[in-house]
């Protein structure tokens, strides 16, 4: 498949990656004392994509020595980092971790306990090396290339990432699925036929679906598929997956299998000029996000998008979308009704009817129920948008937001 040539690192890139990362690890390990830094994530699994310079490094601390004080691992690591690295960022998570930028690479250093089995984990991150080991053991070069195709496919279709503002497919979930189904196209073939709440159990931890459902904690059963983690039978690896992304994958799988094309692996950039050509009234915002952890910042951007979208429904939304630095809405109407019709209680419920009349000056009866017409302050699109941007809800969630264009 030609798409693979564009996403798979060349031999030269792989060699350069190894040299640079090995050099960083040597420098890092010189100050770690009784801990040890190892390559993790897609770099360790051999499933990373061309041009990606984000590297996961796991700092292994002795299990027996640090088990009872694992909550202090980040502090322990920071003491040692200070000896060699002048610039680093401490990021908050279920266990704090660190980010260092060097030689064009961004390293995320995650302190974990060195465990032999998932049951020993004190924090979910402790299991990560076991994930890498499973992927390496269960895959060959052909499968790893197919994993790359799955990742590129999902990235292009905005389906990639388990963060709460995305709720898509994590890299590890895609690795499991491609390994389990033995290939990229077989994965899509199966995905298009997935049922809601389908249980996928690669290591056959459970005798059947019912046994898996009965064993897992109810909080882990909300996702549209239940993917039993191959190294941890009590974990649903796809727990973060949302129904919307699940349905989009099924749809895109059908489309690709019907007519495969390289376009499916290329993310379509939304351009302002292209949006302006579409039929309807365009409201386009430029956004400057707050600083902070990506997952939290992303959630706040999504909240602003949903907040504006909810209000703009009155103007009949044709299309809407958002990216890290922009939001856009294409609507049918530039004005909505001047009055909002508010439904009240049935007339026969005298107490509630009296309360409704007190709150609403002008009421009328329709089919035995009190109704009221409330004048809208923002029935014009421009005024509506301007007033929404002044709200505390928006101001608290973004650093800056401004309307770039109203296209009428």
Structure, explained:
The chain is of the alpha+beta class and 408 residues long. The chain has 16 helices and 15 strands. The protein has four domains: 2-134, Beta Polymerase, domain 2; 139-265, Poly(a)-polymerase, middle domain (Orthogonal Bundle); 272-335 and 379-407, 2-Layer Sandwich (Alpha-Beta Plaits); 339-375, 2-Layer Sandwich (Alpha-Beta Plaits), CATH 3.30.70. The protein has helices at residues 2-7, 11-29, 41-45, 63-66, 73-81, 128-138, 141-156, 171-181, 184-191, 209-215, 243-258, 272-276, 294-312, 350-359, 381-389, 392-395; strands at residues 36-39, 54-61, 89-91, 97-102, 105-113, 198-200, 225-229, 232-236, 281-288, 317-323, 326-331, 339-346, 363-366, 369-375, 400-407. The strands form four sheets. The chain has a five-stranded mixed beta sheet with strand order 1-2-5-4-3. Strands 10-11-9-15 form a four-stranded antiparallel beta sheet. Strands 6-7-8 form a three-stranded mixed beta sheet, covered by helices on one side. The two termini are 44 Å apart. The mean pLDDT is 93.
Q: Which key terms come to mind for this protein?
A:
globular, 5-stranded mixed β-sheet, Alpha-Beta Plaits, alpha+beta, Poly(a)-polymerase, middle domain, 408 residues, 4 domains, 4-stranded antiparallel β-sheet, Beta Polymerase, domain 2
């Amino acid at each position: 498949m030609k798409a693979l040539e564009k996403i798979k690192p060349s031999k030269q890139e792989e060699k350069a990656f190894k040299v640079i990362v090995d050099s960083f690890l040597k420098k890092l390990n010189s100050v770690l004392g009784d801990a040890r830094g190892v390559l993790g994530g897609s770099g360790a699994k051999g499933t990373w994509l061309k041009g990606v310079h984000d590297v996961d490094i796991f700092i292994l601390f002795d299990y027996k020595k640090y088990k009872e004080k694992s909550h202090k691992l980040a502090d322990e690591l920071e003491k040692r980092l200070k000896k060699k690295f002048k610039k680093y960022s401490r990021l908050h998570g279920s266990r704090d971790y660190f980010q260092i930028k060097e030689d064009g690479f961004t390293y995320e250093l995650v302190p974990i306990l060195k465990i032999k089995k998932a049951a020993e984990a004190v924090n979910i991150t402790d299991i990560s090396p076991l994930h890498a080991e499973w992927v390496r053991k269960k895959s060959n070069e052909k499968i790893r290339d197919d994993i790359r195709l799955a990742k590129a496919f999902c990235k292009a279709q905005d389906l990639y990432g388990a963060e709460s503002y995305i709720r898509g497919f994590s890299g590890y979930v895609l690795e499991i699925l491609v390994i389990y189904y033995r290939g990229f196209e077989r994965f899509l073939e199966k995905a298009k036929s997935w049922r809601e709440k389908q249980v996928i159990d690669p290591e056959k931890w459970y005798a059947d679906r019912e046994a898996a459902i009965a064993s897992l904690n109810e909080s882990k059963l909300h996702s549209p598929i239940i993917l039993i983690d191959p190294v941890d039978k009590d974990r649903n690896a796809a727990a973060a997956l949302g129904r919307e992304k699940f349905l989009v994958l099924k749809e895109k799988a059908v489309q690709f299998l019907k007519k495969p094309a390289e376009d499916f692996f290329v993310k379509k950039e939304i351009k302002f000029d292209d949006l302006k050509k579409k039929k309807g009234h365009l409201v386009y915002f430029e956004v400057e996000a707050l600083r902070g952890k990506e997952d939290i910042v992303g959630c706040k951007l999504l909240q602003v998008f949903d907040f504006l979208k909810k209000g703009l429904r009155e103007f009949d939304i044709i299309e809407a979308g958002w990216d890290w630095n922009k939001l856009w809405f294409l609507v049918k109407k530039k004005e909505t009704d001047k009055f909002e019709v508010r439904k009240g209680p049935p007339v026969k419920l005298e107490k509630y009817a009296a309360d409704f009349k007190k709150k609403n000056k002008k009421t009328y009866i329709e089919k035995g129920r009190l109704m009221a017409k409330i004048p809208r302050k923002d029935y014009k699109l421009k005024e509506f948008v301007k007033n929404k941007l002044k709200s505390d809800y928006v101001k608290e969630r973004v650093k800056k937001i401004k309307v770039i264009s109203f296209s009428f």
